[in-house]
Here is the input.
Amino acid sequence: MHRHLCEVTGHYWDCSGSAVRSLRGESEPTICYCLEHQVPMEEGDHNQCSIELLACPDHQDEQLRKMGYGPGATKMPQTPQKGESTMFRDGQGNRTVGFCLWCDKDFYTLEEHEEHTANGMVACAVFQVLKDKGYMPPMLQQMVGDAALLDDEDKER
Here is the structure.
């Protein structure tokens, strides 16, 4: 059992090892992977690892509606091609292992991620500028704002 953060309402929810990722066009649960170790979340202890922002089963339909998908929508989530990985992709479609929520840098290997986050994230210029100002990562702030989870005062930061 591991946790996700529901990107619709901001609550944590328990997952049994696989979840539906409807914004990727999936209708069946897929295995949850640790973003840092690239192994299934059910292998080992990942309590100190990053968690995936993922709408909980109770809020998936609401998330799709807010994003314009569903009955009467002119577009639907694209289904990955058979055999295509559903892991992260950059703007050009290249496979990545993740990205920095602070500066939006794509990581193509775990080594790149580790270099970027090592020693207090000295390699991340955006983090260094904002770390003492009480801001959340800009990418996370945008995601949370898009989900209408911030109050007006937080949006001004």
About this structure: The longest strand covers residues 2-5. Residues 1-77 form one domain. The chain has a mean pLDDT of 78.
